[in-house]
Design a protein that fits this description.
68% of the residues lie in helices and 0% in strands. It has 9 helices and no strands. Helix 1 packs antiparallel against helix 3, helix 4 runs antiparallel to helix 6 and helix 4 packs across helix 7.
């Protein structure tokens, strides 16, 4: 019983830390953008932060509890191989789910709210998604990756933190014109996705759109 409570608390701390980090970035790096969102989209702003808190504080600890008790290997140390596999699994899973939500009208309703925020973004908006989208596009690929690769807790935590921080960065409007490493999804590309909605589906780390375009051209 206590071990389950400890796992839940670890998930709660992780989700809470990500939530606090997003708000710190909102009111420091992205202060102007945050104020513009608050002014232009007051009602949506309030709903967005309900989603953010419910996703990170409500859903995330439960998902972490399941993974910690069922799939993590207690006898392994950090593994760069497992870390990269988890990143790839999560990013690839997100890419296909996200792209399908845009292409399938019946699924777009689960994603529509996130696109309430179009030309101006702030870091925390990265987690302002419906609960269904958060579970299917954000959490499920991590759970599947943990089930397949059975990583250590250190590897799992490192992957979650990398994806979480990446999600904050690509929603930071102030980073729109900052040069980004090729092969990785840049804030500029993701902000463009919010504006046009029909390209740049990849997020938050690997640019699978560019990779698929390269493969198709190469073929």
């Amino acid at each position: 019983m206590w071990s389950y409570l400890i796992s839940y608390i670890k998930g709660l701390c992780l989700g809470g830390a990500m939530c606090i980090t997003s708000y710190i970035m909102d009111y420091t790096v992205s202060y102007k953008s945050q104020q513009a969102i608050l002014k232009e989209k007051t009602d949506s702003f309030a709903q967005a932060h309900q989603y953010i808190v419910h996703n990170l504080i409500g859903i995330s600890p439960i998902a972490y509890l399941v993974v910690d008790k069922c799939f993590l290997s207690p006898n392994q140390s950090f593994s760069i191989f497992h870390y990269m596999c988890l990143l790839l699994t999560q990013n690839l899973g997100y890419f296909f789910v996200h792209r399908e939500m845009h292409r399938n009208v019946s699924l777009y309703g689960y994603h529509k709210f996130h696109h309430t925020f179009d030309h101006i973004l702030a870091p925390s908006i990265g987690f302002a998604v419906s609960h269904v989208e958060f579970c299917v596009a954000y959490m499920a690929p991590f759970i599947i990756g943990a089930f397949i690769f059975r990583p250590s807790e250190a590897s799992f935590l490192a992957a979650i933190c990398t994806v979480g921080v990446g999600n904050l960065l690509i929603h930071t409007y102030e980073l729109k014109d900052v040069p980004w490493m090729p092969g990785l999804i840049s804030p500029n590309k993701h902000i463009t996705h919010h504006e046009v909605r029909n390209k740049h589906y990849a997020a938050p780390i690997f640019d699978f759109d560019a990779a698929l375009d390269y493969v198709m051209v190469d073929l």
